[in-house]
Amino acid sequence: MKKILITGGAGFIGSHVVRLFVNKYPDYTIVNLDKLTYAGNLANLKDIEQKANYKFVKGDIVDAVFINDLFQTEQFDAVIHLAAESHVDRSITNPLDFVMTNVIGTVNLLNAAKNLWKPELGKEMTDKRFYHVSTDEVYGTLNETGMFTEETAYDPHSPYSASKASSDHFVRAYGDTYGLPIVISNCSNNYGPFHFPEKLIPLCINNIKNNKPLPIYGKGENIRDWLFVEDHARAIDVIFHSAKNSSTYNVGGHNEWTNIDVIRLLCKIMDGKLGREEGESAKLITFVKDRAGHDLRYAIDSTKLQNELGWKPSLQFEEGLERTVDWFLENEEWLENITSGAYQEYYQHQYL
Ligand SMILES: NC(=O)c1ccc[n+]([C@@H]2O[C@H](COP(=O)([O-])OP(=O)(O)OC[C@H]3O[C@@H](n4cnc5c(N)ncnc54)[C@H](O)[C@@H]3O)[C@@H](O)[C@H]2O)c1
Prior knowledge:
- It contains twelve helices and twelve strands.
- By secondary structure, the protein is an alpha/beta fold.
- It has a domain at 3-191 and 228-252 and 296-315: 3-Layer(aba) Sandwich (Rossmann fold), CATH 3.40.50.720.
- The protein has a seven-stranded parallel β-sheet with strand order 3-2-1-4-5-6-10, with helices on both faces.
- β5, α5 and β6 (182-187) form a beta-alpha-beta unit.
- α6 packs parallel to α8.
- It is globular.
- Nicotinamide-adenine-dinucleotide binds at residues 7-8, 10-14, 34-37, 39-40, 60-62, 82-86, 101, 105, 133-135, 164, 187, 189-190, 196.
- Residues 7-8, 10-14, 34-37, 39-40, 60-62, 82-86, 101, 105, 133-135, 164, 187, 189-190, 196 line the site of nicotinamide-adenine-dinucleotide.
């Protein structure tokens, strides 16, 4: 019997991880801790919220006393830490929010785990785990060639990636200094169901549907490596259960696309789904002033994860994107509740 704390489980990736663990491991108790910021939405977990091995706790990882008390009360065996401020544009407007949640919040969790588990340096802890979920953006940017490996030096450029890099360093430091049993993974861009519609793909799906402009930064030449979110959740499952303490794994789809090509493909798929003439949705593409400090290219080498732990992505991008479009078209209410703000009023009142 294991009790696992998953932070940020009401967010995009976190909700997929919570669903996978609750359904796949009925013997585990999964506690989902989430502040329910604008990005947290418990509607993402409607299908599992009544399960006996699932519990939701509303709370802020920045509140050190609350976090420490929660660890002492619940006696967690493991943590999978996903809670974060995650949108680069918001980090440019409001960097301090990112320092608070991504850095201070992470250190609060590390301290609470250290206080509860009492690790000793040089003594391997095999029955506890602190798993920190991070991003490939900590590695900075690439030119046309090369890929990020686990050995690539950190070189973050946005306040978001700087805060995630800082949190990664703290997690490693707690492993090296106190013997905390830590693991980190750095993943490329995710897409799929429940993606918050401020991010490129869901924003464009919503705008194509509503015949609104599709804002593309610069000339749309920035390259990202896209991974279907359920493949990321599967990777987290494998790493959580099989990685050695203090190890790091890169997670990615070997699937590089320029932003403009992603949106052209999306327009083509949506033309078909909406019964529009091919090329009609692409007329909505509008180029806007580039994001400050915009990284040119990310590409993840996930060979280590594939060779050592046997994980590989299950979907081709075209198939994953079509599944994503289908999901958004079939779940209009979910999207409308977000764009109208209704999702926040409903759940915030329930958990005041
Ligand atoms: N989205 C991606 O493509 C991607 C890629 C690689 C890594 N990541 C990492 O994966 C994690 C999850 O990303 P996501 O896209 O699902 O993010 P998200 O923004 O969709 O969800 C974040 C969740 O964290 C919660 N949260 C925020 N601040 C909190 C706080 N102070 N206390 C408690 N909960 C808080 C939010 O309510 C939300 O539910 C993040 O750590 C992110 O850096 C994301």
